[in-house]
Amino acid sequence: MECLEAARDSQPIRARWRVELPEKLSRYDNCKMFVTEHGSTVAIDEHGDIISVCAKIPKGQKKSKDSSRALLEFAVKNGGTKLDSYDGNYWFYRKCGFEPISYCEFVEDFAPDDWKKWHTFNSKEFKKENIIFFKHTGKQSKYVDENEFYDNVDVSKDYDDAEHIRDKQFTRINKVKSWLKNIR
Questions:
Q1: Which of 40, 77, 117, 160 is the most buried (most CB within 10 A)?
Q2: What is the rounded CA–CA span in Å between residue 15 and residue 28?
């Protein structure tokens, strides 16, 4: 948790709030957690959820020595198959082979503390961002940006519903892949 907090705190303020610090360490029970030699972090839970992706930026530098894309590739090689994130990260996950499946609206009551703190002072830069649920396919989404995605996919009623929709579709695809593999 300390490594994630240090990596998150190295990010610019406008991006830092998107790296969520779990309220309870139990979130990492049954997770594979990784920290690079430069202090960047990524974890994969037992269901393939990729969490705590954060490239640490060394003091006095503008970039991390670790690429966020490389962290995701590493996570996928180690069992990561899906993730959820605020829509400000849409372009990045799209370029890394994650396709959006479902989303829910931002709920201020569940917003990270950093967002709550900075939104008060700068609501234009710290806007309410929907949460998008992605699956890894290795392909770029057909939706060029989050707005095109929103125009084509109905909003889920809440976080749990959006997660369920993504996971249900993911399970269906895996069953088809398994079936195809068995008939060959």
A1: 40
A2: 23
